[in-house]
Amino acid sequence: MSFFTGISSDSGKKKKKLYFILFSTILVVAAVIGLVAGVVSSSSRSSSSSNHSDQDSPSHTILKSACSTTRYPELCYSEIQKVPGAKDKLTSQKDVIQLSLNLTLTAVQHNFFTIKKIVKTYKSLTKREKTALHDCLEMIDETLDELHETKDELEEYPNKKKSLSQYAEDLKILLSAAMTNQDSCIDGFSHEEADKKVRKILLAGQQHVYHMVSNALAMICNLTNTDMFNQRSTSGGRNLVEQEEVNKLDSTGFPTWLSAGDRRLLQAPSVTPNVVVAADGSGNYRTVSAAVAAAPEGSSSRYIIRIKAGVYRENVDVTKKKTNIMFVGDGRRNTIITGSRNVVDGSTTFNSATLRSGHGSWRVILHSKTQQGLQSIKLWHSVQVLISQHFTNVTFLHTKTHYTCTPFVNST
């Protein structure tokens, strides 16, 4: 009997210990849960307080104000928010634009590597696809140059060496060109069913860059328009006509920005060429392309190429290193350059131009020996391109779309 009583007593003690351990465990778990809940709640309050404080900061106000003038404000804001600590350093709208341009440059470089990967890994690309991808790489190179030039211009802005309207025009042209490059790249994959596969891979990246550049353009327009308005207000409206000065012609019909040296060249009854192109072999070169290839790179003075009468069946490509080139022909009906590349035969639109530049900043003047004046004048980025009426069958591919600074009102 005592034996079983002992067993019962030990069993009761064990149960009491088990209950005690279980109860203690529950208390510990409850305490941990309470502690965690308190930390989370405190963290949440702290985060909420931090976010509220962040939204009241001057840098946040500057960023939201700048982005509100763009067509894609959420993209403008979110891209800058992704950069740790970047937003806290913003002190002006100009800072927002510069940071946005830096992020755009990174996006363009990403597109470059995407295209390089396609070229390397896709073994069944058609001839047109290969050409279109090469075109895109060339346009990426242009876009990078245009964005870097925009950054440099913006660093100097405002500066007495140029008027506010000249800065506005130059910056607008550079970014308009960068936007058009994205469209032109994608356009190269719009001709055949096979093209659409590559187009699909590239589309998101090209559109992203397009939207980023569009935002930068909108902010620059807002910045320069505001500054020009303030300038007119403080000067009693005397600078009201400044915007018209950019494209104004003088009494002789030449643009006011044309240098005195170029004026003399265009007005002279004849000019002394550096080289002569003649289809019959009587000059230094038989083709215009050969003369351009032999021209010096980065020239600071006009390099004059005389093109004698004849029909030159070629596509002339002036690479970005060939600057300050002047073509002199023997008259509209005598000197003719005509190319034959076309989309139907497998070329891309970008690559089919009879005369084109590998860089947006053209320094080419087309001129004739005859004295009938200029038929048309075009601004090509921030550099002058003069096209006389004495050249025919010459196609300029990069007559960039000029995006206007029409104010965009964001309703949000």
UniProtKB/TrEMBL annotation:
Which residue range or ranges hold the Pectinesterase inhibitor domain? Answer: 58-219
Kindly list the biological process annotations in GO that this record carries: cell wall modification; pectin catabolic process
- Entry EC number(s): 3.1.1.11
Catalysed reaction, written as an equation: [(1->4)-alpha-D-galacturonosyl methyl ester](n) + n H2O = [(1->4)-alpha-D-galacturonosyl](n) + n methanol + n H(+)
Q: Which UniProt keyword terms apply here?
A: Aspartyl esterase, Cell wall, Cell wall biogenesis/degradation, Disulfide bond, Glycoprotein, Hydrolase, Membrane, Secreted, Transmembrane, Transmembrane helix
Cited InterPro entries = Invertase/methylesterase_inhib (IPR035513), Pectin_lyas_fold (IPR012334), Pectin_lyase_fold/virulence (IPR011050), Pectinesterase_cat (IPR000070), Pectinesterase_inhib_dom (IPR006501), Pectinesterase_Tyr_AS (IPR018040)
Q: Where in the cell is it found?
A: Secreted, Cell wall
Say if the entry is tagged with keyword Disulfide bond: yes
* Residues that span the membrane, as ranges: 18-40
Q: Which pathway does this polypeptide act in?
A: Glycan metabolism; pectin degradation; 2-dehydro-3-deoxy-D-gluconate from pectin: step 1/5
Q: Which SMART domains match?
A: PMEI
Q: What Gene Ontology molecular function terms does this protein carry?
A: enzyme inhibitor activity; pectinesterase activity
Q: PANTHER family given for it?
A: PECTINESTERASE
Similarity comment text for this entry: In the C-terminal section; belongs to the pectinesterase family.
Q: What does this protein do?
A: Acts in the modification of cell walls via demethylesterification of cell wall pectin.
Q: What is this protein called?
A: Pectinesterase
